């Protein structure tokens, strides 16, 4: 799964450049043959505007949200994109400056205001961003773009128009939720976010949004908290980007990357503070795994512990013979990976990019196994009896269970990230294949497939081509788990004509089926969805 490619030309810098939205969809030039059954839209979001006038955004997660759509119909393809009309975007466009503080960029008070009105602006509290550049997902019959705050934005999947901003705090006790909800076949949506629990101490809530309603009412209005996980530190929640769900359990991994809430609340009134300033690492706690049952939602008070790692993406997890198998894209240690994702870092020349990646936490795909049946008397013994894994779980004298992983893939500075599976059929179930974006010193330069059972790997790669997260679409007559295609937006900045394309790969062996090229550059996209 590792990449031998070097990128001395630095073409990857182009995916971090601003672009214009399109007035109307443009036709794509198709080579190869798109399967007749493959229709509908690929919707993706990411940053599309990296500065406002002469004010730059500093972090990869700061650029203003741009929604992209490739439409597939009768073998023809069109491409369209629009900026999402968030408050952050509209106000920035109106005032021609950064108005709302983003992840790694602080907004400053309006220089035209006098000192008194500036002073009062500080004490109106935190204005949280609604810049929904991370993912897009369905709730009921609707589609929402999201970041990781309490705001999600309803968008029209056909016209890409912005419909409305929704504040989840109006319906749920959460400070924000992740951009990686889980969805059941009936349309029920689950997510996780931190909240203030008993005695003002922190906790994490799993929330449940019901499926589409018969009376056509908004499911968000009927959302509720299902179960609560405790926090390892009273005022410092861990950063949570995703969580795991099996048929009967939720899996929450509490990492040592913390948000210092007191700093967050107090620093906001101090000029120049942003979200990134409020992160810190706890170098003593390692990583904690938590479990809860799904129905009814109840916390299971087992203390699973392991060494420190960063975690952004769960691949999948499932139950097997009294164990829960959890597959993760980890980054070793407690140093926060996002510290290496400032735009100044990812836009450096190739040799400098490589040096920075040498200092950063190292990526590793890992499998952890959590035993459900724990007996105190089995101290020092490996509790994992599954025959196909080397992962261990050992009871310690203090009653905690120490986990050691099985490594599914590891290559120096070579990450298997943005993982995808055949979600509709295998989410929460024993599965074989994971697909991912290969990061070479943080530069996305290949699409990967991993057999999590045999560790066999496949890759798609072309020189100076920069793909995005591959989405799996199952073929209608599928017999095997990997019968289907992968969809990825690829950018080739070095070519003079049609520098970006939708790539369609055979998911079985990662051979190319077709590509649909467009005559515009496409900046980096983070996550997305295939809609009908």
From TrEMBL:
GO BP field: retinal metabolic process; zeaxanthin biosynthetic process
Details of cofactor binding: Binds 1 Fe(2+) ion per subunit.
Record-annotated residues binding Fe cation? 180, 241, 313, 527
According to the UniProt entry, its GO molecular function terms are: all-trans-retinyl-ester hydrolase, 11-cis retinol forming activity; beta-carotene 15,15'-dioxygenase activity; metal ion binding; retinol isomerase activity
Q: Which Pfam families match?
A: RPE65
> Highest lineage ranks of the organism?
Eukaryota, Metazoa, Chordata, Craniata, Vertebrata
| CC cofactor | Fe(2+)
Q: Which PANTHER family match?
A: ALL-TRANS-RETINYL ESTER 13-CIS ISOMEROHYDROLASE-RELATED, BETA-CAROTENE DIOXYGENASE
- The name on file for this protein is Retinal Mueller cells isomerohydrolase
Keyword list, A-Z: Iron, Metal-binding
Family statement drawn from the similarity comment of this UniProt entry? Belongs to the carotenoid oxygenase family.
Q: Which InterPro entries match?
A: Carotenoid_Oase (IPR004294)
The answer to whether UniProt assigns keyword Metal-binding to this entry is yes
């Amino acid at each position: 799964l590792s990449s031998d490619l070097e990128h001395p030309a630095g073409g990857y810098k182009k995916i971090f450049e601003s672009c214009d939205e399109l007035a109307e969809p443009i036709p794509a030039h198709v080579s190869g043959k798109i399967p007749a059954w493959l229709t509908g839209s690929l919707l993706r979001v990411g940053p599309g505007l990296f500065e406002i006038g002469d004010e730059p955004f500093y972090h990869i997660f700061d650029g203003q949200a741009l929604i992209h759509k490739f439409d597939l119909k009768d073998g023809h393809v069109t491409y369209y994109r629009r900026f999402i009309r968030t408050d952050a975007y509209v106000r920035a466009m109106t005032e021609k400056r950064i108005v709302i503080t983003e992840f790694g960029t602080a907004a400053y008070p309006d220089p035209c205001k006098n000192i008194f009105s500036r002073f009062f602006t500080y004490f109106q509290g935190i204005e949280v961003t609604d810049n929904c550049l991370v993912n897009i997902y369905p709730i009921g019959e609707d589609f929402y773009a999201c970041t990781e705050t309490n705001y999600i934005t309803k968008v029209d999947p056909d016209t890409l128009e912005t419909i409305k901003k929704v504040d989840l705090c109006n319906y749920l006790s959460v400070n924000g939720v992740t951009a990686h909800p889980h969805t059941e076949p009936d349309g029920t949506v689950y997510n996780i976010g931190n909240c203030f629990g008993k005695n003002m101490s922190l906790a994490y809530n799993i929330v449940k949004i019901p499926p589409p309603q018969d009376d056509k009412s908004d499911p968000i209005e009927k959302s509720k908290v299902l179960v609560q996980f405790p926090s390892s530190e009273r005022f410092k929640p861990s950063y949570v980007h995703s969580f795991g769900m099996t048929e009967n359990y939720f899996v929450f991994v509490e990492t040592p990357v913390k948000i210092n809430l007191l700093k967050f609340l107090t620093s906001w009134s101090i000029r120049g503070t942003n979200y990134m300033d409020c992160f810190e690492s706890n170098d003593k706690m390692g990583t904690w795994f938590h479990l809860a049952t799904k129905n009814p939602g109840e916390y299971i008070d087992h203390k699973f512990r392991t060494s420190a790692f960063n975690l952004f993406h769960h691949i999948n997890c499932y139950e097997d013979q009294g164990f829960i198998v959890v597959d993760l894209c980890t980054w070793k240690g407690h140093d926060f990976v996002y510290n290496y994702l400032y735009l100044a870092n990812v836009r450096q020349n190739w040799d400098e990019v490589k040096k920075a990646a040498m200092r950063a936490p190292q990526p590793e795909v890992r499998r952890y196994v959590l035993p459900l049946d724990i007996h105190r008397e089995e101290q020092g013994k490996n509790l994992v009896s599954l025959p196909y894994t080397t992962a261990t779980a050992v009871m310690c004298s203090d009653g905690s269970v120490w986990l050691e992983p099985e490594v599914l893939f590891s290559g120096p500075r070579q990450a298997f990230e943005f993982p995808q599976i055949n979600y509709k059929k295998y989410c929460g179930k024993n599965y074989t294949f994971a697909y991912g974006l290969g990061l070479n010193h943080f530069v996305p330069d290949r699409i990967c497939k991993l057999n999590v059972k045999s560790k066999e790997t496949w890759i798609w790669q072309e020189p100076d081509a920069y793909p995005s997260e591959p989405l799996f679409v199952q073929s209608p007559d599928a017999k095997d788990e990997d019968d289907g295609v992968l969809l990825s937006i690829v950018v080739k900045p070095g070519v003079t004509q049609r520098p970006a394309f939708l790539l369609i790969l055979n998911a079985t062996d990662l051979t190319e089926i077709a590509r649909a090229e467009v005559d515009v550059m496409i900046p980096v996209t983070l996550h997305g969805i295939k809609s009908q």
